[in-house]
Amino acid sequence: MLNKKYRETGKLYYSFGQMLSKNILAPRAFARLRCHVVLALRGKYAVTLYEILEAYVNRRENSLTVSLEEFRSWLKVAEDAYKDWKDLKRNVVLPAVDEINEHSEEGGFFVAYEGVSEGKAFTKIRFTLAKSAARDDRDMRLQGKARRGRVFKAPASLPAPGVRYEPTDAVLEQLRSLAPGWDRQNLLATYREWSQGKAAADNPHGAFLGWVKRFTKGQAPT
Fold first, then answer.
1. What is the pLDDT of residues 34-56, one digit of tens each?
2. Sequence-separated (6 or more) residues with CB below 8 Å from residue 14
3. CB 3.0–4.6 Å: which of 15, 101, 207, 218 could bond 201 by disulfide?
4. Do residues 129 and 111 lie in contact, with contact meaning Cβ atoms separated by under 8 Å?
5. Cα separations (Å) of 148 from 16, 25, 28, 47, 89?
6. What is the pLDDT of residues 65-88, one digit of tens each?
7. Which domains does the chain carry?
8. For residue 105, which of 181, 1, 209 has the smallest C-alpha distance?
9. pTM value?
10. Between β-strands 121-131 and 109-118, what pairing exists: parallel, antiparallel or unpaired?
11. How far apart, in whole angstroms, are the C-alpha atoms of residue 111 and residue 200?
12. Are 74 and 136 in contact (CB under 8 A)?
């Protein structure tokens, strides 16, 4: 029961204990799904993949490798559908990844993928995640509060500047839907020129896709 003082204000005040506060605010503790992003995604595979990747984006490793069998189980792909890697990539992986990247600013991260082969057959798929700048800033602020204002230090070393970026075939394929009508090789050349002399990104594929989206936004293909 609230005392008279708080009843008169019409406001309710509450607090969390120190241990609970740390866990609530720690970015790696929970997958914070964004309802408006889930509602905006139209493909059933995109929705499920977004929910799964959101649980991984705050982890220390920015990549996730999973067997195709487990991936199919995650997304509930019918056993008799898309058994060949090319069909699975064209009908499930690429549409889902493209749609997630279309909503990357709202969702808070970009994703790139590539098939992993063992011998002549593709057996696994690797996803590489990169937070958007706004998401990264917000998470750092939240984590800073959880650690009672401790200053975060930059990594001891970053990749050397001037490293020539080389996209995978899967990343180049994603440009078809991320930047329709744009010349992919021209985009790649422009990005290399823009990034020349800058420290290489921790997640080069995600950084490239994020740059493409920003660079082409509101502009006609050239």
1. 666 666 788 889 989 988 898 88
2. none
3. 207
4. yes
5. 14, 11, 16, 35, 45
6. 999 999 999 999 999 999 999 999
7. 16-147+166-216 (1.10.10.10)
8. 209
9. 0.59
10. antiparallel
11. 18
12. no
Separation of alpha carbons 189 and 171, rounded Å: 15
Residue 135, token pair as written in the block: 């998401």
Phi and psi of 155, rounded to 5°?
Answer: -55, 150
**Residue-wise DSSP of the chain:** ---HHHHHHT-------HHHHHHHH-TTTS----HHHHHH--SHHHHHHHHHHHTTTTSSS-EEEEEHHHHHHHHT--TTS--SHHHHIIIIIHHHHHHHHHTHHHHTEEEEEEEEEETTEEEEEEEEEEE-HHHHHHHHHHHHHHTTTPPPPPPS--PPTTPPP---HHHHHHHHHHSTTS-HHHHHHHHHHHHTTSPPPSSHHHHHHHHHHHHHTT----
